[in-house]
Amino acid sequence: MTEDDLDDLEFDTLRTGDHISAARRLSELAEAVSGGVSRANVLLRAGEQWQHAGDHEAAAALYRAALEDGGETYGDPRAYLADALFKLGRDADARALVARIDADAPRDPEVYRAVAEVLYEQGDAAGCHEWATRGADVVLAVRGSGGAAEDAALAEDSLEALLRLRYRARVDLGRPEDDYDAMLDDLLKNA
To answer: Do 63 and 94 meet the contact criterion of CB atoms below 8 Å apart?
Structure first.
């Protein structure tokens, strides 16, 4: 099993819309995973498919399993779990997870993007604005550090999404334009 195999399965699911079958297949694959993919990563993907299918309880269970597994995943499974918990009406539990992610001071801008999206969906424009701003700052720090080219490229991929989220939240909050908006304008002009 490779990441490409998982991507193909998810691409087929986008075409068919059959998220339940994909979730079941990914759950089965997680139990027999081998090769270059971690079990936790497959569990996280299965949880996402349940989430798309509207079964937030099943999604939450798989996100918890990914966390318990502890294997390598993209992003932070806690952000996905927080989303499922919000959808289940368990706001206090979801906010506690967001606080734990915050306490860990992640260095992956995609974690900030995921949390910002979850908070925006919950109507928390101020929280979204804060998380998107901090995520953009992580990207700028990576850009300024002269670190590995691969890390810089991944961080840059997150920047536009973070700045777009931040812009929407800023507009909702009625705050004036600032340097981050100018940065977004520059990105869009150069795209």
So the answer is: no
160 burial level (CB within 10 Å; 0-12, 13-18, 19+) = middle
- Give residue 81's region: left, alpha or beta (phi > 0; psi -120 to 50): alpha
Residue found by looking up tokens 């700028």 in the block: 140
What pLDDT is recorded for position 17?
85
Q: How far apart are CA 84 and CA 47, in angstroms?
A: 9
**Whether pTM exceeds 0.90:** no
Q: Which long-range contacts (CB under 8 A, 24 or more apart) does 175-182 make?
A: 175/129, 180/133, 180/136
Residue 109 amino acid letter: P
Picking from 76, 37, 74, 81, the residue whose alpha carbon sits closest to that of residue 59 is 81
Q: Is the pLDDT of residue 61 over 70?
A: yes
Q: What token pair was written down for 112?
A: 């900030």
Q: Under a CB-based contact definition with an 8 Å cutoff, are residues 145 and 158 in contact?
A: no
Pick from 117, 105, 107, 106: which is nearest to 161 by CA?
117
Q: Which helix (H) or strand (E) holds 136?
A: helix 125-145
Query: Cα 15 to the chain's mean position, in Å?
Result: 22
Q: Is the pLDDT of residue 14 over 90?
A: no
Model pLDDT for residues 62-82, shown as the tens digit of each residue: 999 999 999 998 889 999 999
